[in-house]
Amino acid sequence: MAAPGDLGVTSGVEPPPSTSLAGEVWRLLRRDPLAMAGLGVLVLLLLAAVLGKLTTEVVVVFDPAAVRLPDKLLPPLSPPSPQVVAEGLAPATGRYLFGTDDLGRDVFARMLQGASVSLSIGFVAVGISVAIGILLGGLAGFYGNLRLGFITVDTLVMRFVDVMLCFPTFFLILTVVALLPPSIYNIMVVIGLTSWMGTARFVRAEFLALREQDFVVAAKALGLPERRIIFRHMVPNAVAPVLVSATIGVATAILTESALSFLGFGVQPPDATWGNILADGKGFIFDAPWLFFVPGIAIFAVVLAFNLVGEGLREALNPRLRRRP
Predict the structure, then answer these.
(1) Which of 16, 75, 128, 292 would you label with 6, given CA atoms 20 to 30 Å apart?
(2) Is 122 inside a domain boundary?
(3) Tell me: the pLDDT tens digits for 126-140?
(4) Is 2 a member of any domain?
(5) What DSSP letter does each residue of 240-302 carry, written as one string?
(6) Which CATH number does the domain housing residue 207 bear?
(7) For 208-218, what is each residue's pLDDT tens digit?
(8) Into how many domains does the chain fold?
(9) Does any domain span residue 6?
C-alpha cells in the first residue's frame, strides 16, 4: 500500500513554524524571573513618566512648584491643612502621598515630574552615545585596514577610544557641566558624548567578525554600495550587544544625572529631578526621612531594573542559549 506521501497526500502533521529572533529572545527572557521583574518596574516607570509629563506640565493636576508653607515637612499620607484647602492649593489626591518638603511642595508631584525628566535624560544620552559608538565602531571594523598616511583607520579610532577611557568619566562630565550653563539639554549631550566608548568597542568587534562572513563577501562581489552593505547587512547583525549595552547605559545615565543634580550641577530648580529632590532632603534625614528615602529608593529600583533587564537580554541574545528547547 502506498504511503500517503506517495499519493501526494500530506499526513496532516505540519512542521512547527519558524520562530523569529524577537520571538526567541522573548521566550528566553520570560524564563528569567529577575529580568521580568525588572521589565515590570520599567513599564511602571514609563507609565509614571508619561503620567508625570501630562499631569505636571500639559494639564497641571499635580503642581510640583506650589509652595504651601503651612504644610511643610508633613509625613506621607498626611491631609492638607484647612488654610491650604481654603487657598485652593490642596493636592489632587486629597493627601500628600509622599509627604511634603521644607517649602511645603508635594513630593509625589515632584517625583512624577522627576520621572519624566530622568527618563528623558537617560534615553537621549544613550541615543547620542549609541549613534557615536556605531559610527566610530563601524568605521574601525569595516575600514580598519585603510591607511591614512602612516596610521590605519582602526588604530586611529581605537587609540582615540583608549584616550577617552583614560579620563575619569564622571569628573570629566562634572568639569564640562560646571563650565557650561546649567541646562537639561547640556546634561543630555555631555553624558552622551562621554559614554560611547563601550558601544564603539562592541560594534568594532562585531564588524571584524561579520566582514569575513559569506553574505558580506557575496554582497561585495555583487558590487553593492558600501553604505548599503554596512547599514543593511552588517549593522542589524551587530545590534545585539549594542542593545544590551544601551539598556545598561540608560541606568548609568540616570545615575549620573542624579549624582550631578545631588551635587548642584544638574537640572536646576524649579524643575524637579530625583537627584535634586534627594539633595533637598539631605539636610532632613532625621527630621523628614521620606525626603531622602523616597527618591533614593526610586533611583535604586530603576537602576537595578535596567541592569536586570540588560543582563536578561545578554543571556537571551546568546546564540548558545537560543538553540536550547
Answers:
(1) 16
(2) yes
(3) 999 999 998 999 888
(4) no
(5) HHHHHHHHHHHHHHHHHHHHHHHHT-SSPTTS--HHHHHHHHGGGTTT-THHHHHHHHHHHHH
(6) 1.10.3720.10
(7) 888 888 888 88
(8) 1
(9) no
